[in-house]
Design a protein that fits this description.
This protein is α+β, with helices and mostly antiparallel strands. The chain is built from four helices and 14 strands. The chain has helices at about 5-30, 35-50, 125-140, 150-160; strands at about 55, 75, 80, 95-105, 110-115, 175, 180-185, 205, 210, 215-220, 225-230, 235, 240, 250.
Length: about 260
């Protein structure tokens, strides 16, 4: 079911978005050479406890997951791009790491992701992150009442192809509200003018992710971590936004 929120409800959701943004900022600042992924998950877990929020991940067990996720943060490193399960790994110089984080606060969920490079950056990694961010910005730019989900999908796909990237549509954006994943599904490519109409009060998470030289993916033995099929690196960015009568509200905007 697709729920349209009232302006009062959107105001009630804002603290969740602000908290998610603050955690991702803290994680991006803490990520450094030698830092363990489990320590980053612990940092996010402690911030959740201090804020009185609830993790959307720790008990999450969708049909594609081998088991409940068991952590509060997705950490996808290098050729991993989605759903990276934190494990005993110390970040190395030039690692590309994506953080994906969602919580429920006061009954409202927000979801966001970012990608950063640890230590000495590779030019091609910075370019991939910039391409993903460009796609997210383009998608937010057309997320307006009167347009359709297909306009968002088409905007992401167009940016990806303009940079010579192929686009995977197996995992994409989604509705957000009382739960983390709801309708409508928002693929990262599509045809403009198609799909569910965007209406004031609709809250969605838009999440472009690109791999450098493929759109084919494989699953790790952990049953969660998704990697490129050819070993090329990936970048993932995401914001929760609300459709309004005017410009969209980026609930998870970071300073």
């Amino acid at each position: 079911m697709i729920e349209l929120l009232t302006p009062t409800q959107l105001d009630e959701m804002r603290p969740a978005g602000e908290f998610v943004a603050s955690v991702l900022t803290a994680l991006s600042e803490a990520a450094d050479i030698g830092v363990n992924l489990l320590d980053l998950d612990a940092l996010a877990h402690e911030m959740i406890r201090e804020r009185g929020a609830e993790s959307c991940y720790i008990d999450y067990h969708p049909s594609f997951g081998a088991m409940p996720f068991g952590k509060v943060l997705c950490t996808s490193v290098n050729d991993a791009v989605l759903h990276g399960l934190p494990h005993d790994y110390q970040l190395q110089d030039s690692d590309l790491v994506s953080f994906d984080f969602a919580v429920s606060l006061n009954g409202w969920v927000c979801d966001s992701a970012l990608s950063v490079v640890v230590g000495t950056p590779r030019a091609e990694d910075l370019e991939l992150i910039a391409n993903a961010q460009e796609a997210l910005d383009a998608a937010i730019g057309v997320a307006r009442a009167g347009n359709k989900v297909g306009d968002i999908s088409a905007a992401i796909g167009e940016v990806g192809r303009s940079h010579g990237l192929s686009v995977n549509t197996q995992f994409g954006g989604h509705g957000v509200g009382r739960t983390m994943h709801g309708d409508p599904h928002i693929p990262n490519d599509g045809r403009p003018g198609r799909g569910f109409p965007l209406q004031p009060g609709l809250v969605i998470a838009i999440e472009p992710w690109f791999l450098q030289t493929t759109d084919e993916i494989v699953m790790d033995p952990d049953g969660w971590t998704i990697r490129s099929a050819d070993g090329s690196r990936g970048a993932h960015v995401e914001h929760t936004i609300a459709i309004t009568d005017g410009d969209p509200i980026v609930m998870t905007a970071r300073d």
